[in-house]
Amino acid sequence: MRQHQTSCRYRANIGARRIIFSREPDSALKPRHPWTILSVPISPYRETIHPASTLFMFYHPLPAKRSARRTLLCGLLCTASFASAAPSESNLQLPSWLSLSGTLQTRVEYLNQDFDSGQREDHALVERTTLRADLNFEHSGATLELADSRIFWVEDDTPVNSAMVNPLDILQGYVWVGDDQWQVKLGRFTQDLGSRRFMARNRYRNTINAFDGVNARWQLGEQDTVRAFYSLPVERRFDGDPRDNKMKSDRSHENQQFGGLMYETSRLPFDSQGEIYLLTLKERDSADLQTRNRELYSVGVRLLRNPQTSHWDYEFEALQQEGRSRLSSSATNTDSLDHSASFLHAELGYSFDAPWQPRLQAHYDYASGDRDPDDNENNGLDSLYGIPRSDFGPTGIYGLLARNNISSPAVRLELKPAGDWRLFMELRDAWLATAAAPSPRTGLAEAIPGGDKHLGSQLETVLRWQVIPSRLQLESGLTYFNASDALKDRGIDDKYYLYLQANLSF
């Protein structure tokens, strides 16, 4: 086991000031308690110190494992200093055709029981940094965005993959032509499509989906839009053990193709909006990419009405997925099956004209699972490049519920206790859509004998605080999963997951 370091110094030059953090015995900054908050006023300008320009740093003498301490200190330092006094584009005196921006997301996660053995606690520190430059001319432009996603303070036997780690690489790099009525992008891009359930730019997850290809938009009048894209999904990569956060260039593959077409309209009755879309995914194995040989065609429709005070709102989305696929990407699995799966989301909400602006919602989510493992047909829904976060709770080292083989009603309450505070609570009951298929994310690696479909109940609470509007947001969440008797009989107990997160935009 590595020993704790006895002396360590961190230095940062911020404008006209030099800040030094030290663990040397004579340091005035050394805390007296292992969990101590250090507060240091910082500002890049001599003449003013913003009230928010104070660095709040949690200190704990953790072992120096994989530089976790050093990265945490640097991340929190950057967050505080940039959020309080990062110069605007006007301060930088940039030309009108150039804009620079970036984000920093830092999150600490804790899970009371790991998913493999169920015998120990689990934890992680994840950081994601993006830097973006946009060149905008009258009818053309270009964008370059870099992203760096890393993980620290994680156990050696914690499953870590490219959903958590993707060291420095190009996230977006494209040129565009167009105007207010149409636009075409060519290059590497990210995209939110519709509800984000089947194609999204990830927000909570530490790494982000990207695509190489062409992306187009046409505005048909003021209320109708057509979107189309054809792309090669980008494979996120790292070198060696992902815990080492070593870079390896991302790449796309010609034998994996993802495309789509969507029509959007806001001309529906009752202030409603609608979407109709087609998504296609075609892939085949190659020497450098093992796939499930999916050839999927997904047709969906979505109707919604946005929330308004003293009004009802709703959302309805349904999708049918047909084609062929394999059950796994293993090289030994060469059997292609007919694929037929379905998806449904329905919600109804009401926003009250009352203190804290409460909005109460009822939800139902359904995603099919494989009905019969011996019928040469795969009925498990493939969520493609979408996100589960908005419906099924946090991912990270938790990610217990997924949009596959699930039937789940929920009740959700949203509150605004103050102008800069948001409180979100949801109670969700989770059932298998079919007892003939497993639910691996819950730890249920095989179907439940006897047809028992109940997985358990999940209570999620999230609190967000806009510390500096449009600049710095703090977020905390607690998710508790009460496992059903069917899961407990198989050694899968209750779980709770806690996270603390800071989001900086500059």
From TrEMBL:
Residues covered by the Alginate export domain: 97-494
Listed Gene3D superfamilies: 2.40.160.100
InterPro entries: Alginate_export_dom (IPR025388), Alginate_Permeability_Chnl (IPR053728)
Top-level division of the source organism's lineage: Bacteria
Name of one Pfam family that matches: Alginate_exp
Name used for this protein in its record: Alginate export domain-containing protein
Native species: Parahaliea aestuarii
